[in-house]
Amino acid sequence: MYQIVADETDFIVIAKSHNVHFHSQDGSAGVMAKLEQDLGIKLFSVHRLDTLTSGLLLFAKSSQAAAEFTRLFTEHKVQKYYLALAKGKPKKKQGSIIGDMAKSRRSMYKLMRTMDNPAKTQFFSQSVAEGLRLYLLKPLSGKTHQLRVALTSIGVPILGDTLYGGEESDRGYLHAFSLHFIFSGKEYQYINYPSEGVSFTALNTIKQLQMWSEPEKLDWPKQK
Predict the structure, then answer these.
(1) Which pLDDT band holds residue 223 (cuts at 50, 70, 90)?
(2) Which of 72, 99, 103, 224 has the highest CB neighbour count under 10 A?
């Protein structure tokens, strides 16, 4: 279900496997409950990952630490970067995807043209195989299904994300790649390369990931 990436005094960082629930469901433990059980401590959630999404996930070890992380996330002081693979040609190869999100059918969401409380996502992309592109995504807001909706809105649903029209595959190709933040005066950065999925572990994909290994240093588009 997970691997421990870092075990600090105030928080723990894990790499969640794909197709693992965050919350407990149908009598089986979710990743948070399993981690609490394995470590024998109480943990506090400060952000989440969808079931299909693998990668970096942080839990606080106290209510005080959780409150501080909640503040950091709310103020967008935690830099988060995700990876996705999608087939097809996008409407644009890099830039920003911005718009309000609204509930649609079958637990889905959709991107609107309105800008009252918009979801904001920046991205780069690079071809890694015939008809397949790798996306580096930087969410600037924290909406449910934000990244899945963002890529669908530019015509390239995530590979394996069948809810949003993605082609069937061995997994949903969305991965929490990097976390970067300052907590209690100390800087932390974690990078986790995806280890599951034929297309994530292909040589061309790995080469591109190595070029993006410090995503906070990339020239992201400026927000208006």
Answers:
(1) low
(2) 99
